């Protein structure tokens, strides 16, 4: 039994056995059933290393799925249960800048290889890039307060800005201003004096293409390093989590892709 998330690719293997020996069947297929025993699909089986295999996509329903293979042998139907069942589990949705499918395509490897490691690297590298950029890829709302002293310009601590919901100075709403959303800069038409309160939403509403590419490059770098002597999976994830502090040359190109998007901490 393996645990996967909805939409994950899962490789299932089947052997058809007669009198203790594996045999070949014609028109091999398999039926996939959800946790409520409803048939949700039929797939053709392929041969691989003397086994029959099927690559299925985990469904959206949480629970244990099972698959039954069947084929014709000497005029009768043989059945075989998959050698591996899988359970779709409900998890908190982490920040993921790229999909599993995109990652497999970029790495050029089979869809079912190292799925757990791929998933882990996607989340770790996404978090590392988000931390390096000092922003959010899941738009967040924040309220800040402070004091203005005849100022025309106010720099917000977070950006890019999606929307300013409210901007008050001494409890009066102010609307005469312009906003540089990408830089998080408010420019007032007239100098402002007094205590302010601003409620705004910040973050990216979609992932910029250079960020997606940077995430894929970081994943590929760490994935390929796994075979190097001394690089355990723990070490790889440690490198990803400390991406913002790393001085390794391998990350120079990755950082150059996204440096212009980095939110400078005030």
What is the element layout, followed by pairings?
Blueprint lengths: L1 E3 L4 E6 L2 E2 L2 E2 L3 E8 L5 E6 L1 E3 L2 E7 L5 E11 L2 E6 L4 E3 L11 H8 L7 H19 L6 E16 L5 E9 L2 E2 L3 E4 L4 E18 L6 H17 L7 H9 L10 H7 L8
Parallel strand pairs: 1-11
Antiparallel strand pairs: 2-8, 3-4, 5-6, 5-9, 7-8, 9-10, 9-11, 12-16, 13-14, 13-16, 15-16
Helix pairs in contact: 2-3, 2-4, 3-4, 3-5
What does this structure look like?
With 266 residues, this protein is of the alpha+beta class. Helices cover 23% and strands 40% of the residues. The strands form four sheets. Strands 1, 5, 6, 9, 10 and 11 form a six-stranded mixed beta sheet that branches. Strands 12, 13, 14, 15 and 16 form a five-stranded antiparallel beta sheet that branches. A hairpin with a 2-residue loop joins strand 9 (63-73) and strand 10. Helix 2 crosses helix 3 and helix 3 (209-225) runs antiparallel to helix 5 (252-258). It is elongated, with a radius of gyration of 26 Å. It starts with a strand and ends in an 8-residue tail after the last helix. Residues 229-233 and 243-247 have low confidence and may be disordered.
| DSSP helical segment count | 5
Determine the strand fraction and express it as a percent band.
35-45%
Number of domains: 3
Low-confidence stretches: 229-233, 243-247
> How can the largest sheet be summarized?
6 strands, mixed
Helical/strand content category: alpha+beta
How many β-strand runs?
A: 16
Mean pLDDT equals 83
How many angstroms does the end-to-end distance come to?
Answer: 49 Å
Give helix and strand order, one letter per element, not per position.
EEEEEEEEEEEHHEEEEEHHH
Which bin fits the share of residues in helices? 10-25%
- Globular, elongated, flat, extended or rod-shaped: what is the shape? elongated
Return Rg in Å.
26 Å
